[in-house]
Amino acid sequence: MPAGALHDRGTSVMGNLRADSALQYVQGVGPRRAELLATLNLRTVGDLLEYYPFRYETDCGEAAIEDVVPGTLVTIRGEVVRVGGRRPTVRCEVDDGTGTCVLRWFNMPYGAYNLFRGATVIATGVAELFNERLELRQPRIQVFAPDALLTAQARGPRQVGVYRGNAQVNSALIRRTVQNVLAHAELPVEEFLPPALLARRKLPGRAEAIRQMHRPTGAAALERARRRLAYEELLLMELAMAVRRQKRLTLQSGMKLHVTPEIDRRIRARFPFPLTPAQDQVVREIAADLQSGRPMTRLLQGDVGSGKTVIALYAALTAVANGRQAAIMAPTEILAGQHFRNIDRYLVDSRVRYVLLRGGMSQRDRAAALAAIERGEMDLVVGTQALIQKDVAFNELALVLVDEQHKFGVLQRHEFRTKGPMPHYLVMTATPIPRTLAMTVFGDLDVSIIRRPPPGRGRVITKVVPRQKWDVVMSYVRGRLERGEQAYVVCPQVGGRDEEAAPPDPAERRRGNPGRAVVTAAETYRRLTEGPWCGLRIELLHGGLPAARKQAILADFVAGRIHAVVATTVVEVGVDVANATIMVVEQADRYGLSQLHQLRGRVGRGARDSLCVLLAYESSGLAGERLAVMARTTDGFRIAEADLKLRGPGQLFGTKQHGLPELRVASIVDDFGLLEPARQDAFTLIAADPGLVRPEHQALRAALRKMFADKLALIDAA
Ligand code: ADP
Ligand code: MG
User: Fold this and answer.
1) Which residues contact 260 (CB under 8 A, 6 or more apart)?
2) Residue 577: nearest ligand to its CA?
3) DSSP string, 230-249
4) In sequence order, what are the residues at sequence separation of 6 or more whose Cβ sits closer than 8 angstroms to the Cβ of residue 305?
5) What is the Cα 1 distance to its own chain's centre?
6) Nearest bound ligand to the CA of residue 302
7) Which terminal residue of the chain, N or C, has fewer Cβ atoms less than 10 Å from its own Cβ?
């Protein structure tokens, strides 16, 4: 059928629409507009129907010009009685029988609206009085022929969708096109949720929901529609998680590692303390995984200092006791070294053979170590992730432990060169992951959590202090340093130029606040040594220092030979210094909550109470709210939830690497109430029909494939 026939005027409702019909054939579109719409990736009727308004405006219906109240948003309709203005300004006068109103556009492209005397226009805009005349500036208008038969609009206020456009396409064109599609009694929308689910969750059908999204009949109906579509997205996402998990459980065979009472006893005997109940619980979970015959894929969460290392070692020694190998990987050389020293401490006089792969190793040592690992003459290998992954071949690698520390955003599935079956895998993170994210991003992993630290820790008291009190704070801290405590002073930046930085809050920038200098570690170091901390032993520590120098400073700090380190955030991955009981964070408002929480975790490691001072340079609005959260709680999970609410998931992860599909309707933060049921439903569905092969699940399966396209090649294998 020729295209022209389809969008002929007068063909108000054309033949059957299909979801894959090109938009060109929708009434009022045609090839040129179709091209424009394609710039928004809107190519088919289906694309358009799923392109939802990003907000709604209240359309109050038409008003008589004599009733128009200046300062309000109005829609008027009348006849054009005069068109003029000097290009590019267009001025037009409209009369509706009750009065006249001026419409004015500045910078109107010539001929953008085909205005002529006698035409009927419907114009929407904010009415203002100029020279005592009613005027709409830059109104939105529709122009009709003089003889157009327009039915009178007798209706109350209604919500009208506003769509995200671009330079070529405005919201109005999208809305008009959508309305032309909605004019069809039957939308080409397929329901893919099984009827049983719809009924159980009391959700409207898909076509109805989509119609409501574009043309809501009321606030309640709109919310119901939004819920339905949000649920559908969350369900698909959780289905992907469930499928991935199912696949792991059924398709892969792991190495069976036995945890006999004898092995358990021998491992525990290595630790100078009994495990806490929280650690015991995690150890049980891990032992069950290791013995299951399926590869473990577990995420272990616990604040810094909660005792994860011991658990990692327990798991590693289980592998060794079974005659296999284990690898422990850390994000930095410092951390790898720390793990190694811990292992060294716990394993004195044991027969376990372990090695640290360092970057600075000699070729010979390295070659010897690699050979031993490959021959199975090394039980435990410690190193950074890069080091271990790159070129190490294992003999019988049974367990991989990854200390992600604070970088849980990138959970790669590591590939190892190993002869045996797929190794067990345990990832440790010190970043508490909010439950919502644990259920989404890491939804296919098993999760263990240590909520309570080992006993005998002091409290950490947090104070938010305005920067004007800098001298007072530092003098006070000096007193405590002189009495034998140690402190960290953390600054956002090392040094160099005192760069002007924009304030973190965009609203602040709009108010004309040009920003303020970043407090540098170098400058703070100078101020302290020349001022309130004159005569004390202080060191400047930052990531740019040679590794040996950093190690030396940290060693001095651990040994109590220096009072304080002024540092950038390198202390995040620093060592365990039980005597460090004071932390001062400069410009605390520049950090994310999770980062502050991690920083704070550096103190409070000993038995004494600790103090954390957050120097606030900005205490209004969001910044103040965030710092208040820090002062209120030390529970990492509550802080993470707050951070997520305040800044959204993007900030927590930074990139798209987290593998979350793009959600159009649902919000990970606000739709938590839907996420939980969606997850339940998804896991129940997959348990009953793992491949979604039943006839009633075909549509669901197709929708799942569409949502994840090639991102996760998961459905095919299922
Ligand atoms: P994480 O790796 O989670 O940051 P670590 O495993 O390094 O924490 O433990 C922090 C400190 O707590 C270490 O000094 C460790 O010796 C100690 N510790 C761990 N478990 C226990 C326990 N069950 N009882 C007493 N102290 C413990
Ligand atoms: Mg640790």
Assistant:
1) none
2) 1
3) HHHHHHHHHHHHHHHHHHHH
4) 453, 454, 457, 576, 601, 604, 605
5) 47
6) 1
7) N
Report the interhelical angle of 698-708 vs 219-251 (nearest 10°). 90
CATH fold group of domain 261-292+307-429: Rossmann fold (3.40.50)
How many Cβ atoms sit within 10 Å of the Cβ of residue 169? 20
52 CA distance to ligand 1 middle (Å): 50
Burial class (CB in 10 A: 0-12, 13-18, 19+), 119: buried
In this structure, how many other beta carbons lie within 10 angstroms of the beta carbon of residue 146? 11
Report field, pTM of the whole predicted structure over 0.70: no
> Does ligand 1 lie within 6 Å of residue 619's CB atom?
no
- Architecture of the CATH domain 5-182: Beta Barrel (2.40)
Ligand of minimum distance to the alpha carbon of 310: 1
Token pair of 481 as six digits: 């340093």
SS3 353: coil
Looking at the domain 460-634, which fold is it? Rossmann fold (3.40.50)
pLDDT of residue 251: 59
Other CB atoms within 10 Å distance of the CB of residue 669: 17
Name which of 170, 151, 157 is nearest 216 in CA terms.
Answer: 157
φ, ψ of residue 48 in degrees (nearest 5): -65, -45
Ligand 1 neighbourhood includes 106 CB (under 6 angstroms): no
Percentage of residues in the chain having pLDDT higher than 90: 44
pLDDT in tens, 574-616: 567 778 999 999 999 888 888 888 888 888 888 889 999 999 9
Burial environment of residue 455 by CB neighbours within 10 A (0 to 12, 13 to 18, 19 or more): exposed
- Gap between the Cα atoms of 127 and 122, Å rounded: 14
* 431 Cβ closer than 6 Å to some ligand 1 atom: no
- What is the Å distance from ligand 1's center to 564 Cα? 23
pLDDT at site 244 = 81
Residue 20 or residue 656, greater confidence: 20
Residues forming beta bridges with residue 613, ordered by sequence position: 463, 584
Q: Confidence class of residue 41 from pLDDT cuts 50, 70 and 90? A: very high
Any ligand 1 atom below 6 A from CB of 276: yes
Q: Which ligand is nearest to the CA of 308?
A: 1
* Range of weakest confidence among 49-53, 54-58, 240-244, 492-496: 492-496
Question: What residue's CA is closest to ligand 1, atom 20?
Answer: 307
| pLDDT tens-place string over residues 105-161 | 988 776 667 788 888 898 999 999 998 899 999 998 888 877 666 655 545 567 788
CB atoms within 10 A of CB 16: 8
With vertex at residue 171, the alpha carbon angle to CA 165 and CA 175, rounded to the nearest 5 degrees, is 130
Encode pLDDT of 686-708 as tens digits: 999 988 999 999 999 999 988 87
Question: For ligand 1, what atom is nearest to the CA of residue 601?
Answer: 4
Read off the tokens for 684.
């129940």
Ligand 1 site, residue 429, Cβ cutoff 6 A: no
Give me the residues near ligand 2 (ion), CB cutoff below 5 Å. Answer: 309
User: Smallest Cα–Cα separation from 193: which of 718, 696, 667, 687?
Assistant: 696
- CB of residue 279 inside a 6 A radius of ligand 1: yes
Residue 446: beta bridge partners?
298
Q: Please state the atom number of ligand 1 nearest to the C-alpha of residue 303.
A: 3
Domain ranges of the chain: 5-182, 261-292+307-429, 460-634
Q: Whose CA is nearest to atom 19 of ligand 1?
A: 307
Candidate from 309, 342, 345, 382 with most ligand 1 atoms within 8 A of CB, to mutate: 309
